[in-house]
Amino acid sequence: MARCELLDATTIVAFNSFNGEVDNLPEVPHLFVEFEGLSDSDVTQQTELAAEVLTDCGGERIRFAADEDERRRLWKARHSTYYAALALRPGSRGIVTDACVPLSELADIMFATAADMEELGVIGPMLGHAGDGNFHCILLVKDDDPPEYTEALRQVNHRLIERTLSVGGTCTGEHGVGHGKARYLIDQFGVHGVGAMKAIKNALDPLGIMNPGKVIPIFGP
Predict the structure, then answer these.
(1) To which protein family does this belong (predicted)?
(2) Are residues 182 and 152 in the same domain?
(3) Per-residue confidence band for 218, with pLDDT thresholds at 50, 70 and 90
(4) How far apart are alpha carbons 89 and 23 in whole angstroms?
(5) What does the pLDDT average to over 91-99?
(6) CA 51 to CA 62: how far, in whole Å?
(7) Which of 51, 137, 172, 206 has an alpha carbon within 20 to 30 A of 101's alpha carbon?
(8) What residue numbers bound the domain in which 202 lies?
């Protein structure tokens, strides 16, 4: 398996609207899987096995790309996700969350996050690198949104991270800690773990001039 990407129904709705093609995708969650192998028969064997597993798990309308043009057309839904999401709220920008959980927890975490967004009235298409448990919400915000809405966005992200850490996941799968997630490091790594990071940071950067204020924002003993 080369790639395994999950797009939720909201993402597919956004893509269909943004794409403008006649042959829209069914507006339900989609799993995009790409296989590679040493021969055509090797790839065929993998796709047949995947189709069997997906069908057993309730998957429907399984579709295969027969050539390169079809493959590119199907993957377009994934590759245009960010700009398609922005079109759901014209004039918005996207704040992309980033969490990673054990694969056995991925579905439950995504369902719970979707429920949070519905409860709080937040628009946030979700997509995931389903092969490694890493997933993102594209939370749509405008500069003139009322404080109540921006607080709702923060709550979605906070609940997502707290829930992720509770099942042994990480607050960042690939985007990094930066400013926004530094507050969660002690919850994830413990006081001693963060203390070790701080000691290394202070040893390498005693003046605090290398990317100041990021990840480990407090210096000193």
Answers:
(1) Belongs to the FAD-binding oxidoreductase/transferase type 4 family.
(2) no
(3) low
(4) 23
(5) 93
(6) 7
(7) 51
(8) 177-220
Tokens 């995708």 belong to 25
* pLDDT above 60: residue 32: yes
Residue type, 62: I
Distance CA 142, CA 161 (A): 23
Q: What average pLDDT does this structure show over 120-130?
A: 93
**Rounded Cα gap, residues 86 and 124, in angstroms:** 10
CATH number, domain containing residue 148: 3.30.70.2740
pLDDT tens-digit profile of 126-148? Answer: 999 988 999 999 999 999 999 99
For the segment 86-93, the average pLDDT, to the nearest whole number, is 93
Statement to judge: residues 134 and 152 lie in one domain: yes
- pLDDT value for 73: 82
Count of structural domains, the chain: 2
Distance CA 39, CA 42 (A): 5
Query: Backbone dihedral region of 79: left (phi > 0), alpha (psi from -120 to 50 degrees) or beta?
Result: alpha
